[in-house]
Amino acid sequence: VCIYMLPTIPSLVFIDAATGKVVCRNGLLVVRDDPKGLEFPWGPKPFAEVVAGPLLRNNRQTTDSSTLEGSYVGVYFSAHWCPPCRSLTRVLVESYRKVKESGHKFEIVFVSADRSEDSFTQYFSEMPWLAVPYTDEARRSRLNRLYGIQGIPTLILLDTEGHMITRQGRVEVLNDPECRLFPWHPRPVLELSESNAVQLHEGPCLVLFVDAEEEGELEPAKELIQPIAEKIMAKYKAKDEETPLLFFVAGEDDMSDSLRDYTNLPEAAPLLTILDMSARAKYVKDVEEITPAVVEQFVSDFLAEKLKPEPI
After folding, report:
1. Rg for the chain (alpha carbons), in Å?
2. Alpha-carbon gap, residue 145 to 174, rounded angstroms
3. CA–CA separation, 283 vs 266, rounded Å?
4. CA distance 154 to 171
5. Is the C or the N end of the chain the one with fewer CB within 10 Å?
6. What local confidence, expressed as pLDDT, does residue 28 receive?
7. Pairing assessment for the beta strands 130-131 and 106-112 based on DSSP bridges
8. pLDDT tens digits for 276-285?
9. Is the pTM here over 0.90, yes or no?
10. How many separate helices (H) and strands (E) can be counted in the chain?
11. Residues 6+ apart with CB under 8 A from 3
């Protein structure tokens, strides 16, 4: 049995019965936009096909989407009415400038979720990049469907061939203000912080809690689980599927304490856990010594649905 965790209800997910792969997570948008099923089976299409058409600049000039070819592209889902969006936009303007100045071919396409064209126009006037015309609601909706957008702000990063690099552009921009790690390829293991904690809600996450307070003390923990994380990422990338598990290490700080309190975890360290916030479930491996073999077996049992969840 394959269970798809849903962030809200009602939700409608289309699955290819032959392969078990998710065809479309935003089924409600699909049936709204294509009530006669003319685009059935509603599978994912290339970004270049979905975005095809004129794009706006804030000086009211237009350019064709074909000008994006050969560039890294950020697809920015945002709206003026959303305070976190406005905060991110201010940072993103600087990041956009720095990436362009570094010599990378980079463009951003704003996909508005504003509630009126006037709001869109006002908000877009602050942006130096491109936008899908507000009046082209069908194209905006198709882009939302393509990436399964569930909330804003969301920044999707695409490589020069239109393939997704990361859904976590927002986190990457905030964590790397100098854009030294652009184009922000996913790192196998992250150090839990306030800025990336939002990713705990993206799906199941392995979190290894360790006794570390000083900078650099988390490195041994990262090195312990990194080969396993890399193996999982490579396996699912080869199948053109999203990684089913994110990997974190957490030391002793306020962020870790808050997470332990919220999920009702013991104070032990080291402590190996898998947290699935959307399912409000946790899996805990409380052993004296955590070795690569222990982690690998824990991950394998989770993916095979052999572990019994505890409620969060």
Report:
1. 21
2. 25
3. 12
4. 9
5. N
6. 80
7. parallel
8. 998 899 999 9
9. no
10. 9, 15
11. none
